[in-house]
Amino acid sequence: MSGSLPFYQKNHRHYDRGYRNKETASKMSQYQSSSSSRYFAGSSTSATSSSRGLRVSSHSGLEESRLSPIPKRTKPTYLAVDKENQIIGYVIPIFRGSQEFATGFSDTEESRVRDMARRDLFSSGLEMERSELISRKEAMRESADRICLNKRIHDQEEHSKRMNEDSLMHPPEFVIKPRSHTVWEKQCVRLHCTVTGWPNPRVVWYKNNVAIESIANPGKYKLESRYSVHSLDINRCDFDDTAQYHVSAMNSKGELSAFASVVVKRFKGEVDEYMPAPRHGPVSEYGVTFQTHIVDKFGVSFGREGETMSLGCTVVIYPSLHRYQPEVQWYKDGVLLSPSKWYQMHWSGDRATLTLAHLNKEDEGLYTLRVTTKSGYETYSSYVFVRDSDAEMEGAPGAPLDVRCLDANKDYIIVTWKQPAVDGGHSILGYFVDRCEVGTNHWIQCNDTPVKFARFPVTGLVEGRSYVFRVRAINNSGMSHPSRVSEPVAAMDPGDRARLRGTSAPWTGQIIVTEEEPAEGIVPGRPLELQVTEATKNYVVLSWKPPGEKGLEGVRYYVEKCVSGTDTWQRVNTEIPVKSPRFALFDLAEGKSYSFRVRCCNPAGVGEPSDPTEATTVGDKLDIPSAPSKVVPIRNTDTSVVVSWVASSDAKELVGYYIEGSIVGSNVWEPCNNKPVNVTRFICHGLMTGEKYVFRVRAVNAAGLSGFSPESEPVEVKAAIASPAPPFGISVLECVRDSMVLAWKQPSFIGGADISGYFVDYREVVDGVPGKWHEANIKAVSERAYRVSDLMENRKYQFQVRAANMAGVGIPSLPSDTFPCKEWTIAVPGPPHDLQVREVRNDSLVLLWKPPVYQGRDAVNGFYIDIKEEDAPVEAWRSVNNKATEKTYMKIKNLKEGEVFVFRVRAQNKAGVGKTSEVTEPVSAVTKPGTNEISVAVDDDGIISLNFECCDLTPDSKFVWSKNYEEITDASRLTMETKGNKSKAVFNTPAEEDIGIYSCIVTHTDGASSSYDLSEQELKRLLEVSHDHKFPIIPLKSELAVELLEKGRVRFWLQAEKISADGKVDYVFNENLISQGEKYKMNFDKSTGVIEMIMESLTPADEGTFTFRLKDGKATNQSSLVLIGDVFKGLQKESEFQMKEWVRKQGPHFIEYLSYEVTPECCVLLKCKVGNVKKETSALWYKDGQEIKADEHLGFTEGVLKLEIAQISKKDSGVYEVVLKDDRGKDTSKLNLTDQGFKDLMNEVFSFIANSSTPLKITSTDEGIRLYTFVNFYNDLLQVTWHYKDSAISFSDRIKSGVVGEQLWLQITEPTEKDTGKYAIEFHDGKGGLRRTVELAGQAFDDAFAEFQRLKSAAIAEKGRARVAGGLPDVVTIQEGKALNLTCNISGDPVPKVTWLKNDREITSDDHCILKFESGKFASFTITAVNTSDTGKYSILVKNKYGTESGDFTVSVFIPEEAAGKKK
Description:
Blueprint: H1 7-13, H2 22-33, H3 64-67, E1 79-81, E2 87-93, H4 98-103, H5 107-122, H6 125-163, E3 170-176, E4 181-184, E5 189-198, E6 202-207, E7 210-211, E8 221-226, E9 229-234, E10 243-251, E11 254-265, E12 291-295, E13 301-304, E14 309-318, E15 327-332, E16 335-336, E17 343-347, E18 351-356, E19 365-373, E20 376-387, E21 401-406, E22 412-418, E23 430-437, E24 443-445, E25 455-459, E26 466-475, E27 478-479, E28 489-490, H7 494-501, E29 512-514, E30 528-535, E31 539-545, E32 556-563, E33 570-571, E34 582-586, E35 593-602, E36 605-609, E37 616-617, E38 629-637, E39 640-646, E40 654-663, E41 670-671, E42 681-684, E43 692-701, E44 704-705, E45 715-716, E46 728-735, E47 740-745, E48 757-766, E49 769-770, E50 774-775, E51 785-788, E52 796-805, E53 808-809, E54 819-820, E55 833-838, E56 845-850, E57 862-869, E58 878-879, E59 889-892, E60 900-909, E61 912-916, E62 923-924, E63 935-938, E64 944-949, E65 959-963, E66 966-967, E67 974-979, E68 982-987, E69 996-1002, E70 1009-1014, H8 1016-1030, E71 1036-1044, E72 1050-1056, ...
């Protein structure tokens, strides 16, 4: 701590003799008798300014019981903490007892002081000194004992720690973190922190993540570490010290970091207020010097509230080091921006982008990108304008802006804002203030009536809660959008807010003074320094200081008012006393005078009132500022104007100015800025080039907006004119005995106006010492070459050149090299000069030059052009042309796109090649965006012109036309016309003498130029086009043609490609004009160009030539159509037919005549389509004149008549006819299906049959092999042919064909190997037919043949098997006594064996039953006389080697009587 020690430390440790004087004793008595005291903190500088009784913390070693007479209570803490509960310092509480507060002594000490006072009165000074010496020794002895005891306790604790070290090990922890600082440049700053941890942590400081080494920066940084307190001192801060610092603490248990920022500001008025000067030279870290370039920059930007805007620049850093990143920062109006919900920053490695997420008028301003490397920094700035968003109601004002909170207290906050520039055309009536508690979305309007003052006190807040605010403007048309919300602010006492911020630390010497708990039962005293801080017609704001004595905790205030001239005081806040020493009074009568006073209150009661204020009249104390004056606009660029003005006089609390502009004569004013500017000069952007504007300005403060200034003088928006930059590249073209010819290059900047001339100065150089400058020419020279005369031979001279334009003479160039004035005698030419580059494209450019002034021994007869890349060495020069050119220009082709080149020219004569010219400036072979070429055009009058358009035109630009790169001054051949950004050169009388290269260059642009080569062939082509335009022909899309319409009408027509509304047509027949009438109907549609003439019919008299003659202005054309002979007759016949057709279709008629269709089922369907039928219309079918009766085969649906023939045959051949008729007439349709017609029909049927056939397949029978195919339908008239090996088969008994149902087959009986091969069946349909094939060979034949053999054997066996062919009945009923004879046929080979069975038992032949088998074919069974025993089941069994078969029958014998009985 600085200064002397506090009084209480002097008293207890080293009490001095100065305390014992009478003056000090008298002072102590006064303190004891004082009824009130003041808060005091800090240290005393002398014994006379004694301590105010501050109580020290427990670290002082004094016992609390000795310092306080109050009974012992809970021990308070004296550590000051921030809102994150981090310790930031110590707190010394104020003592509570009034006597203790006055003296700071205990009871014993107070008695000793009184005794000393009495002894001073009644005893000698020697006795008192002896007594004091004893007392002092006793106090020193007690203090020494306490110190010894504390040391023993400390040593014991340290011993315990060493004995149990592991139990105390813990990671680092920041007891006090480093705090951020904002300092002025050249000040010193200290960052410090307190770190605990065991083992003791190692602490390292970092700047922007780079470790700080004090050895590498001696005198700049100082690092200290003492007793766990670590500090970093930064000496004489500059802007480069603005950075983020962090300290890292690490031990074996872990690592922890804490962060702090340092911001270094610069005083206004110094160069580059916010940006420090760059450091140049190599970087120690990398050993290189970085070069930073900002390209692809954002320009002046315009946005609207609520939109999103991005600003970006491309940053090129050379050299590019791996992993090295520059520091990229964004500023607005010189204030560093940080990422937030409003600002989003992005760095991609080569492009910096700032995104304004939601534009508000607060975002308007100058934005700066600052890119910092170790070698320095580069910046780029541009302005952003933000317009008001569209109002919800037309005519509503713009939103207020820049809402801020001031003077925040426990229940009171002042909200301020700035008025908008746009009032919607109606004066703003006032503003509404809304509040919203942080964490909610509920907005509450704070004022019931609008306030005009741009400042409003918000009361009724809840202590400890945070709020945000917004403001809305209102006029007669409606309410504006709300402003952007303010930053959150807490309603609390400013002292509490300061303590929460934690701005102190124990080693800085600053002590935070807090109150202890209030003394009970003490009524507070009077408030102090009551005053009216603000008075408007809507409210009055009072402020005061709390009373200075004890008992302030929990104090509230009552405010009272009194009308001037009366003694009646009225309490304003009767219900709720206020907590803050601020109060706003509303509802006061405007114009009346009031006095105010304040009372304190607490639970003990209400105190005495303060002294009243002076009489205050209710009304606006802050006047609206006066209008600015002398508004002066100055040209700046082609879209901006600089406006300056004289500030408002006697303006108080000025917020800024609004500027408005209007196009002359429009009377429509638009704001130039939507955020007030606090300067008297502003650049208004976004203006229209070439228009004239007037401007006006008004001032704004919290009271409102001033009136408008007088309008400025009109100013035209175009680039400002300045004097040109100095020329450069001075060289000598010729030197004789007393004169020298100089040449130089045009300045890079001509000042926005054409250079009117140049002035040359010279001076003599003697022994390297230049003399005084002399003017070489008094009158400006227009050429960039000049002969300086009156020089001295063999003397040395230097030269300088100045350029002049309408703005004045520019600064001179740098002095040239020293040239000797010595006559040239060389034989070769001097250097060409005035090299110019034009028409730069990706692969070509045009180089122009002037011949050398010094010709040499002979005249110049040619030039050589040299080229090289810019960075290439001198050896890289190469010649463009191998043969010298006599022209003073050349188009250089085959350049590499994007490469940068330089050029030079050499002249030659008969003696050789002379000196080289000066090298041109580097030229990049790139076609600039928007580059146009000269185009040739021929207008409708045949006039040929060359046209050139320039997109980058400036107000001062001019088009300069040249022929063969020499400016055209003779107007007899060409006439130049320029309108806007287009110019054309019109040929008056094109001829061969006009052949050449025509070029056009636009001045005051970035080299906009082009050329056109008018060759002999091109001139010939243009003359032909010109002739066609002078004598134009109306182009036709189609020539005259004829077509037939309904009713046989005849239409003649043609179509022109384009014809105007003034076009005319003459209709001619056989060279005679014809006109509109009954016979001819004419029509001319000029929109489509269709011309037509319609005739109702053709007669023999209409045979001839028809012609249409067209005329449109001077353009003509005609088209003819010849209708004679057979052509005419055919057209006439067709016309008559069409007429008949039309008549036919007036009744029922056929739309589609009778035709046939073959269905997939091979049915024939006769059909026709009819139209214009009705219910009474009848349709009759006929065949060969005989009507076909209607049956299921006839149909008439949807206008289609049908007759189906299911299985067509030859009998269906004939002539079919359908007749339609009703009362309107009849129509007939016939279809001839005889002869060829029937044959064609059947061929189509055969085609369907053939297409339905299946693939040819192979099968086997017991006779041989069979090939077959199936069809869906077979017709007897179908003709097919079977082929074997592509030859028709001749049928025989062995090979046969046939049809079974829908199967067509070919049978090969007893096949052999000779029958193998390819077989096919061919269907004939009168066209190409259809053929199906199969290959009977190989495995297919073997399988079929094997199957044939098997079937053949089975057939033989079946044929020879024993069989009972028939003859036996199933049942035989016979009368007893009768004879029974049964016979059956037997077959089989060999002859089968015959066996007879009765009841399954074999029987043999005897006399009663005779069994016979004759001729191997007939078997007989005979019973001569049957009886009842013959009844039974009989069977015959035949058998041979191929099989067995049986035949059964039953014999039933009956007796006649029984038979009679059965009958009965």
